[in-house]
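Q: what sequence does this backbone want?
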């Protein structure tokens, strides 16, 4: 459950590979 949320929002939190691109 936590891993799934980390996967979705985690990309942004991690300075994600596509996090900034998604936003």
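A:
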């Amino acid at each position: 459950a936590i891993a799934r949320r980390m996967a979705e929002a985690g990309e942004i939190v991690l300075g994600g590979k596509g996090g900034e691109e998604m936003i």
